[in-house]
């Protein structure tokens, strides 16, 4: 049953990437870091537990308010495996943060995380002198006490997690660590390291970036007011665009060009979006975004834009299903290495509801059915993937027959308030 229009105003949930980093940098720093607006999702809470197990004093003082008493870089040996649940960001960044601390640690995760590639971080960290043992490149992984030296490295995949792991390891390594990114990825680690007092040099050259820091360095505690998450905001934005009569406003959304590829893409598709500047938070600009139901048209999304919207392709594909014409999305090989194979998962989600989709090795093509043209009736198989779950539910809202998902539990890994926020916008989603 298609839902009625969405309307209302929401404060965007805290950004997941900034939340992980606030806890990790706070734990490495000297002094007490106060965090407000922390995203209290399962992924982030697992990082909080890991940093506590590594010796930081991590305390919740109110809703979204946390203090982290840092270790001044002297991490403790955890007495149990560090369990990161579903979170690639948590495990990969903490591997980097712990690598040169001289402690031993074991890293584990859930079924989805245990199937994801870890050599992309353990290879460069081992080249810095770390002693990681993985299970054929996957979790569980074990670190033996290690001493690091700097590295000059160009990651073979565009990945902020890989970049961040190396930079965090560089803090405890002897000498210069340099990361070259041919295509810039989200730059929160660089921005936040500088805010925590690191001496770090970031040079931009067109789409490329080179980051240098010389270790060892100790960070200084810094208060972090977490801005809103553009990736989570995408669900309400697209829901409003494709559901006739809707208008929703999201406030406090982080406005960082390495994160806002979806806004640019939706505008090219003809979306009725109004963006107004908001206050700066944690060194980031924020914006208020208003989305109105619109007739979208299919476009070709530039492959180079993928890093700036890598988590948004499933929900973009849903928008494309309601567009007139074809949307071609190239440059998506990385989607196969997320919580699930998101390229195939997204295609299956759309096909189950009657949308005509093609997948290539690294591309997705959606032949839009136009406003009101998506039949619906499909059931999304989520494969432990929160973004497929939320995308399947948004598709159901505006399709003729509605749609269901097999499991909503994983939504709590990134957006625990998803159902409450959708209810606040006037739509009750029923877990099926
Ligand atoms: O650094 C981060 O916070 C993230 C980086 C991205 O992963 P990759 O680095 O694997 O692209 C993204 O998909 C993830 O949700 C968060
Ligand atoms: C890919 C994601 O997260 P992670 O890699 O941290 O599991 C995501 O949130 O879409």
TrEMBL record:
Described purpose of this protein according to its UniProt entry: Catalyzes the transfer of the enolpyruvyl moiety of phosphoenolpyruvate (PEP) to the 5-hydroxyl of shikimate-3-phosphate (S3P) to produce enolpyruvyl shikimate-3-phosphate and inorganic phosphate.
Binding site for phosphoenolpyruvate: 16, 88, 116, 161, 342, 387
Catalytic residues identified in the record: 311
Main location: cytoplasm
Keywords associated with the record: Amino-acid biosynthesis, Aromatic amino acid biosynthesis, Cytoplasm, Transferase
This protein's pathway: Metabolic intermediate biosynthesis; chorismate biosynthesis; chorismate from D-erythrose 4-phosphate and phosphoenolpyruvate: step 6/7
InterPro entries: Enolpyruvate_Tfrase_dom (IPR001986), Enolpyruvate_Tfrase_sf (IPR036968), EPSP_synthase (IPR006264), EPSP_synthase_CS (IPR023193), RNA3'P_cycl/enolpyr_Trfase_a/b (IPR013792)
CDD domains linked to this entry: EPSP_synthase (cd01556)
PROSITE patterns recorded: EPSP_SYNTHASE_1
UniProt name for this protein: 3-phosphoshikimate 1-carboxyvinyltransferase
Quaternary structure (record): Monomer.
Enzyme class: transferase
Example of a GO biological process term: aromatic amino acid family biosynthetic process
Ligand binding (3-phosphoshikimate): 16-17, 21, 159, 161, 311, 338
Pfam families assigned to the protein according to its UniProt record, in alphabetical order: EPSP_synthase (PF00275)
Protein family membership: Belongs to the EPSP synthase family.
EC number: 2.5.1.19
Listed GO CC annotations: cytoplasm
Presence of keyword Transcription regulation: no
Domain Enolpyruvate transferase: from-to ranges: 3-421
NCBIfam families in the record: aroA (TIGR01356)
Catalytic activity from the UniProt record: 3-phosphoshikimate + phosphoenolpyruvate = 5-O-(1-carboxyvinyl)-3-phosphoshikimate + phosphate
GO molecular function: 3-phosphoshikimate 1-carboxyvinyltransferase activity
